[in-house]
Amino acid sequence: MPSALPIADPAPLDGLLPASVVDGADARNLGVYIHVPFCRVRCGYCDFNTYTSDELRGAKRDDYASQAVAEIHQAEHVLARAGLPARAVSTVFFGGGTPTLLPASDLARLLGTVVDAWGLEPGAEVTTEANPDSVDLDYLLALKAAGFTRVSFGMQSAVPRVLATLERTHDPERVPLVVAWAREAGLDVSLDLIYGTPGESLADWRASLDHAIAQQPDHISAYALIVEDGTKLARQIRRGEVAQPDDDLAADMYELADAVLADAGYGWYEVSNWARASAAAGSVEGAVSVESPESHQGDGAEHRSRHNLAYWQGHDWWGVGPGAHSHVGGVRWWNVKHPAAYADRIAAGQSPAAGRETLDDETRRVERVLLAVRIREGLAVNELTAEGRTAVAGLIADELVDARAAFAGRIQLTLKGRLLADAVVRRLLAD
Ligand SMILES: C[S@@+](CC[C@H](N)C(=O)[O-])C[C@H]1O[C@@H](n2cnc3c(N)ncnc32)[C@H](O)[C@@H]1O
Ligand code: SF4
Known about the structure:
The protein folds into two domains: about 20-315, pyruvate-formate lyase- activating enzyme, CATH 3.80.30; about 380-430, no CATH class. It is built from 15 helices and 14 strands. It has helices at about 60-80, 105-120, 135-145, 160-165, 175-185, 200-215, 230-240, 245-265, 305-310, 340-345, 360-370, 385-395, 405, 415-420, 420-430, and strands at about 30-35, 90-95, 120-130, 150-155, 190-195, 220-225, 265-270, 275, 315-320, 325-330, 330-335, 355-360, 380, 410. A hairpin with a 2-residue loop joins β7 and β8. Bound molecules: S-adenosylmethionine and iron/sulfur cluster (SF4).
C-alpha cells in the first residue's frame, strides 16, 4: 500500500455508504484487509504507511487491536445499513508494516472479530505478512490455532550485501528456519523478493531465487525495487552514495526469475506473482490459457493469493486501520494515515475515513483494463473500446500480447508484454 493518499471528496463521519453499492453485490466477494502500521525500524527503500516507536506521537501499539476491533464493528454496521446481502468473508489479509510485531493474541482477536461479524467462507484464505525476525514456532502455532492459513515472509534477498543495502534487519539464515516452522504449524508459505537493488548482480539475484525455491514455498512475489520519493534510499541515490538502479538489468532479472521459477514449477498468475503448481501439473512455462481463473486447478491456482486477486478483479474489500483503502461497489475510500489521528477518530466514535470517491462507469472500465491486463487470464477483447481494439494488432506485432489468446478473444501478456505492462495498458486505453 503506497503511503500517499489521493485527493478527493471528504468522507462522511458516519461512514455510511450510498444505496448504489448494492448493485451486483451478489457477484462480488467480500475481503477484509487489516493494516498494522508498526515496524521496529524502517527499511531505507520503504514508503509504506508504517511507524517506528519514536514516530507514533503518543499512539500506542498496545491500544491498536482494540481500535481496529472498533472499526470492524463500524464496518459491520455500515455494510448492513447499506442493504448489502449477508456475505461470509472470502479472504482476510493482515499487512503492514509488520503485523507480527503485535502479539499473536491481538491478531487472533482481530480475526475472531471478523468471524463474529460476517463468518468465513469454507476454505477462506487468512494471511499475515511477517518479517523473518519477528516470529518463532510458538507464534506461528498460535496463528494456525486462531484460523490463519498462510504467512507471507519478507525475504527480499539471500545475499547479505544486498540485504545490507536494503537495510533489512534479518539474517538470511533465518528464512529457512521460519519457513520450516510455518510448515510445522500447518501454514502455507509465500516469500517476497526484491530485485534490482543497487549493487545486486544477476548472479546475486539467481542465488536469491535458488534459495527461495529451495524452501519450496507455495507462492513467490518478486518486486522490482521502486525508488520512492522521500525515502532514505532516494536521498542516498541523489547524493551519489548508492548507484541508480539499472532498468535493463532489472528486465534481465525479471526474465531470469520467470525462467527459473517456471523450471521449478511456479507459474506466473500476475506480473509480480508466481504460484507453485501441484506435483502432477508440471511446469507451466509458456502456458497460455483462455480459460477462466477458476479453471486452473492443478497449475498453481490453489496457491494463488486469492486476496490479491480480489483486488485485481474488483471485488469488495474493507480496509481496516490507518491509511487503509477500501472498495465496496464502486465506492472507494481511505483512512487517515497517522495512528494517532486514527486513534482519535475511533475514540470519538467516528469513521476513520479521510476521503472517498464514487467511481463513474468510465473510471471503473479504465481500472478494470489496468488491473486485468496484469493477470494471466487477462481481459476480454470486448471490454475494450473500439480504439482499444484497434491497438491490439500492433501489440501482437510487437510481441507484447499473445496472438492465439487475442484471436480467441482475450488480451494476455507475453513475457515481453509483462516487462512493458504499463506501456501495453497505455496503448489499450489510448483514444
Ligand atoms: C509490508 S512489506 C512485508 C512485510 C514485512 N514488513 C517485511 O518487510 O518483511 C510488503 C512487501 O513490499 C515490498 N516492498 C516494499 N517497499 C518496496 C519498494 N520500494 N520496492 C519494491 N518492493 C517493495 C517488499 O518485498 C515487502 O516484503
Ligand atoms: S519491515 Fe516491511 S513494512 Fe517495515 S519498513 Fe521494512 S519493508 Fe517496510
